[in-house]
Amino acid sequence: MFIWSYWKTIFSKPASPSKAFGLPRVEKEAYEREERAEVQQEILKKVARNLPIYTRTAGGAVRYCNPCQVIKPDRCHHCSTCEMCVLKMDHHCPWVNNCVGFSNYKYFVLFLAYAALYCAVICATVIQYFIKFWTKELPETHAKFHILFLFFVAALFFISVLSLLSYHLWLVGKNRTTIEAFRAPVFTNGPDKNGFSLGFSRNVAEVFGDQAKHWIFPVYSSLGDGHSFLARLVHIDPEQANSVLQQNGKSLADGETNLSVHGNNIQHTADDSKEKVDEGQMVSVTVESEP
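^ thats the sequence. predicted structure below, dont judge the formating
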């Protein structure tokens, strides 16, 4: 299982944005001819209206990748090492010589889990010989140094891998990537570190799938396509929004509503029900992170 997960993490090609996120020919030519940044942004905003995009740059601009010439989907970032945009990019890992993102994040977490388990098994089976070495009951052979080396290496790797595994399991539970943990995604009305969190069980299902029988195997079972993600969009009124903000340690001022309406027509699947954003308004509650 360790080798299988490691192999899948290495050889799974990072997923990149589809052609739908590229600029149409007319808009692309206009964008390349235009030198004013504000006009270029208007071109990008016009195209982005028809795409399932909610995040922006820190300055509020549409996220566009010049090298790849695509509008970046939510949670997508450009990897300078792979020289491509990677969907739901977490980080570029030199240990696997690959980008860890939407296409192989589950495999990466399983790789860490089985690596930690592998090291634990080695320590458990070697510790009796290590004790004999320490009490000088082990025969005087060169093998005793191999046992000593094996135990310490396995123990050190277990500690380091376990800490990394714990961190990534925490990220899975919060539905964040490593990039988002250090820099909160920016929505139309400000940064929100919990913008993609849907609750613990749904966050786990987004990475490992909705069928628990597939969780322990390095086979693809993640939900979605990597291009669009269900953010914290709910049908609520301002009073409900106020209660949500109060639960997060914030409150709306009297008569003030910090809500933004998104008009993109997107269909998302949540648990066993589907919500169509074709009718009514989808209201996004964004809680600004504390300084």
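The two ends are 43 Å apart (CA to CA).
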